[in-house]
């Protein structure tokens, strides 16, 4: 058996997960990693500080085929699930806000149009969305309770051949910059999805400011005051299965994305601990620091293996929502713990955005909450294990 030295192991890929990828998957990861290294990381700290979403990066992301990348046809790249996961991982290594933008555009907006839309809707919306010329947002969460979507108050009623939409949505990524909103509302016949265009009369948005998390992401409220939506803008799905299937797609990307945030934190704190000297030796030469770094590596490695197997299940059409819940719960919890501990190991430097852990830790406070809180995912797994619902 060959014994490899520690120097030969990749500190952020200790189990050589990259070696388990296909050549096309590695090439996709490499191209997005280069984009993040050269165009995202140099500007993202300043964007975070000033609550700025870097719209100038959308064109490049579209050129790389990142928008709607797992969809087939209509100008989409048709990549497999593992490639989509790796894209999310590299984007979130840069910043959760950037991965959130791609997740919303791809999984929450383009996916439902592709899966539930008419052919006319697909032809109208998907090609320009893949090119980054049309931005979408996903309106499900409401101010009074995001974890119980069946309790939504937004309502649409028939009026001739049209629908009249009233209500509001909150904490909506991309809302204020979106050209079209995928809005879920109650109707007399069940929950339906509506394509609400930004210039529809009675539709307005507000920008959520003063956030301490996802500051590079546009977060908004959506408000509908007797908005007339034509029948041609209604998706062909009824019930919660529509929005919940979209959330499954987005959660899949999150399971991968948070690994990138954790890897960025570990890589930086390893470098710092080797150069920071206290009491006559580097921090990295102390037992307590090595134990903490090893814990971070264990959490990242476990998350990588969970995500890879989840991706293989996805690509063989065997993935179940409960498996996504397990990975979203585990990987997000692991990532936020890595980010917090990395921030602590940096000492006073850890509170500066010149170092990445504080930014990732703050962002992950949102990621662990949205697309299903940690508790919701724990209860989802518990329900699968027992056959009994505790919701």
Automatic annotation (TrEMBL):
Pathway: Amino-acid metabolism; lysine degradation; Amino-acid metabolism; tryptophan metabolism. Residues 137-227 form the Acyl-CoA oxidase/dehydrogenase middle domain. Keywords: FAD, Flavoprotein, Oxidoreductase, Transit peptide. Coiled coil: none annotated. This is glutaryl-CoA dehydrogenase (ETF). The lineage of its organism: Bacteria, Pseudomonadati, Pseudomonadota, Gammaproteobacteria, Steroidobacterales. Gene3D superfamilies: Acyl-CoA dehydrogenase/oxidase, N-terminal domain (1.10.540.10), Butyryl-CoA Dehydrogenase, subunit A, domain 2 (2.40.110.10), Butyryl-CoA Dehydrogenase, subunit A, domain 3 (1.20.140.10). PROSITE patterns: ACYL_COA_DH_2. The keyword Hydrolase does not apply. GO terms for molecular function: fatty-acyl-CoA binding; flavin adenine dinucleotide binding; glutaryl-CoA dehydrogenase activity. It holds the Pfam family Acyl-CoA_dh_1. Belongs to the acyl-CoA dehydrogenase family. Residues 22-133 form the Acyl-CoA dehydrogenase/oxidase N-terminal domain. It comes from Steroidobacter denitrificans. It comes from the Bacteria. Its EC number is 1.3.8.6.
